Amino acid sequence: MAMIPSFFNNRSRDIIFDPLFSFDPFKDFPFPSSSLVPRENSAFINTRIDWKETPEAHVFKADLPGIKKEEVKVEIEDDRVLQIRGERSVEKEDKNDRWHRVERSSGKFLRRFKLPENAKIDQIKAGMENGVLTVTVPKEEVKKADAKKTVEIS
User: Fold this and answer.
1) pTM, 2 dp
2) What sequence ranges are listed for the domain SHSP (predicted)?
3) Kindly report the CA angle at 104 between 20 and 131, in degrees rounded to 5?
């Protein structure tokens, strides 16, 4: 009978998969885990953005709860780079406040995306509703090359 290491026994397996148990699978990696990142830097890591492509456009959606549209900048940088940045302010603290848990992030965030060649840079639109920023980048129609092309022989 083979010996099973103690960390594979039923008790530890139950703890690892317990949804209420705080487990950080990245704690031994060289980059900082979310529990080690200072509060003012955590918004950068937690800003989630979806990018989908439709037949007409590239659509970016960013969850930015609690941020006003005036606090967000959408810019196009050198050579077709879409940049979304902003800052979520830290809540003012009172000396009499006693914090029990801090999970909402604050600080600056910045995300960049290299846009494809078919993006119409001059027609980008952005809007914000219910804490979701939507950036729509229309696409140019890509002309398909003819299936056959005759090459002249010299």
Assistant:
1) 0.61
2) 40-154
3) 115
